[in-house]
TrEMBL record:
Residue ranges constituting the Ferritin/DPS domain according to the UniProt record: 17-155
Spans through the membrane: none
PROSITE patterns: DPS_2
Organism: Pseudaminobacter soli (ex Zhang et al. 2022)
Domain of life: Bacteria
Lineage: Bacteria, Pseudomonadati, Pseudomonadota, Alphaproteobacteria, Hyphomicrobiales
Record-linked InterPro entries: DPS_DNA-bd (IPR002177), DPS_DNA-bd_CS (IPR023188), Ferritin-like (IPR012347), Ferritin-like_SF (IPR009078), Ferritin_DPS_dom (IPR008331)
Record-given protein name: DNA starvation/stationary phase protection protein
Gene3D superfamilies, sorted: 1.20.1260.10
Length: 158
């Protein structure tokens, strides 16, 4: 039996709004990570340059999947920088901080995005939208993994 959610446009719009916030957070992290990739310097240059590229490449795919899910729900996906800035919980970085500060910002940002994704999971689950809940759950796991990997770079050997 089909879920009543399929025909409930208000519920679909509310779920899409939660995904819009996740899309904005993801895009801002993508943009920041790519900027860090371009501007990292110092003794950690090579591994961080490579790591940041891997991370922004993964984010690009995720951004597309989240935006397409929003469209599948019906609403227009946010697609402008002004919309992203309005919806995001991630602060913009306009400078080129030291490598350790880049890592610290990204740990914080991925933790924030994980919480935003978890809110999207809750919104979707409360409305019976298993497809959106699954997508957002995958984003929780990926943001948590990325935060863990980056925070491991901050640890000092004992």
């Amino acid at each position: 039996m089909a879920s009543p959610y399929i025909n409930d446009q208000t519920a679909r719009t509310e779920t899409a709004a939660a995904l819009g916030r996740l899309l904005a957070d993801s895009y801002m992290i993508y943009l920041k990570t790519q900027g860090f990739h371009w501007n990292v310097a110092g003794p950690q240059f090579e591994p961080l340059h490579t790591l940041f590229q891997e991370q922004y490449t993964e984010l690009a795919q995720a951004i597309d999947e989240v935006a397409e899910r929003i469209r599948a729900l019906g609403p227009k996906a946010p697609g402008s920088f002004s919309e992203f800035k309005e919806l995001t919980s991630i602060s913009e970085e306009t400078g080129a901080p030291a490598a350790d500060a880049m890592i610290a910002q990204l740990v914080s940002d991925h933790s924030t995005a994980s919480r935003t994704a978890l809110q999207a999971v809750a919104a979707a689950e409360s409305r019976g939208d298993v497809a959106t809940a699954d997508l957002a759950t995958q984003r929780v796991a990926q943001h948590e993994k990325t935060a863990w990997m980056l925070s491991s770079l901050q640890e000092r050997g004992n």
